[in-house]
Write a structure and sequence with these properties.
mainly beta; Neuraminidase; five-stranded antiparallel beta sheet; 4 helices; 10% helix; globular
């Protein structure tokens, strides 16, 4: 029997789902070594991102505080049913921000006031992050988180954006926005330049990673007008990204940012009959902002999560004005909704966010812990 050349074998196996790779590692020691090599993990990640056909959603049970994940695919029936899988290897997070930041299959969660975990739910690998020596006292401050990949240093980074509670008697006039950066490769924290923007604009939200930057909505300190600000993971500095020209420049700070089909998007955080979701089709190009219109006569509040069916259907979170959230699919061509029934997660849950299934390890710099 002829031996398959390693390059051809790599190209074949890199097209398999991440969970199937785990089973293939049991075939033989040479296969286990090959499928655990950094170049194979990178090749598998590149193909996964190219096809984006294994995106999953995280769910947190409001009753049992258990973490689940589920996948949503197109169905011709009037209602979509999806099975939730319990992620029992990690304690469910406190819902400390709107959403759980994710990048290349890694998810950042927190399970108490001082602990943060970086997990890959596909490989069941978990890493507890050290507490930043520059962190503010959590009892007198607020912190937002972001997670992204720096392609220059080949490193995943966790970014924290913190500011003192203005009602804090110890720091009553402090408005500085402190920025800390954690290197997954080195396992160390550093303090970056403080943000020149005002990020205390409402409820705490996770940063959105696109194009090498982590994005937040903020206010300019000069005139309090709204801005989309981005943190460069290589330069570790803030700058602005142009917003849609037709959006109110003073009030869009109350909107939400997300990622749809690999593109940055912005949507309102209030209920209305026509929800405008703006998608930046070409990153950094103001003229590429494109409007997706969601029509709902009940004037519900929606949060976009991901695209399916060749990007013609949007999976969204529907706010029911309770602790319960619902998932729906909106068809952009027919302007119709489909309800999504989640089996196995209970009737009451909150939606954390979406992620892709990869082999990327939270111990990115440690070869012995990559697999």
């Amino acid at each position: 029997m002829k031996t398959i050349p390693q390059e051809i074998l790599t190209n074949i196996l890199a097209r398999l789902p991440a969970k199937s790779i785990g089973r293939c590692r049991c075939v033989s020691k040479p296969w286990c070594h090959l499928l655990s090599e950094p170049h194979f993990i990178k090749a598998h990640l590149d193909l996964t991102k190219e096809f984006m056909d294994n995106e999953r959603i995280t769910l947190i049970s409001s009753v049992s505080n258990t973490l689940f994940s589920t996948s949503i695919t197109h169905h011709s029936s009037a209602e979509i049913t999806s099975l939730a899988t319990e992620l029992s290897f990690v304690v469910a997070p406190d819902f400390w921000t709107e959403g759980m930041p994710s990048c290349d299959g890694l998810i950042l969660i927190g399970n108490d006031a001082n602990k943060r975990l970086l997990v890959n739910s596909t490989t069941n690998k978990t890493r507890e992050l050290t507490v930043s020596p520059y962190a503010l006292d959590p009892h007198g401050s607020f912190t937002m988180y972001g997670l992204g990949y720096d392609h220059v240093s080949d490193d995943y980074k966790v970014v924290t954006l913190s500011y003192y509670d203005t009602d804090n008697e110890y720091e009553p006039d402090c408005t500085e926005m402190f920025v800390n950066v954690y290197s997954v490769r080195n396992g160390t924290w550093k303090q970056a330049e403080s943000s020149p923007y005002d990020h205390a604009v409402g409820h705490l939200v996770s940063g959105v990673f696109v194009g090498g930057f982590i994005h937040w909505l903020a206010s300019r300190t000069s005139d309090y007008s709204s801005a989309i600000v981005r943190f460069d993971l290589t330069e570790e500095k803030f700058s602005e990204l142009p917003a849609p020209s037709s959006v109110d420049g003073e009030n869009f700070v109350l909107n939400r940012l997300a990622v749809l089909g690999g593109c940055l998007c912005m949507s309102p955080s209030n209920s209305q009959k026509e929800t405008e979701i703006w998608v930046m089709k070409e990153y950094g190009v103001e003229q590429s902002w494109s409007k997706l219109l969601v029509v709902d006569q009940k004037a519900s509040e929606f949060r976009p999560l991901m695209l399916i069916s060749d990007q013609r259907e949007v999976v969204m979170v529907k706010d029911e004005e309770t602790v319960v959230e619902k998932l729906v699919v909106y068809n952009l061509d027919s302007a119709t909704f489909k309800d999504i029934t989640i089996q196995g997660a209970g009737d009451e849950f909150q939606v954390g966010g979406s992620f892709i299934e990869t082999l990327v390890s939270p111990y990115y710099n440690d070869e012995s812990r990559r697999v």
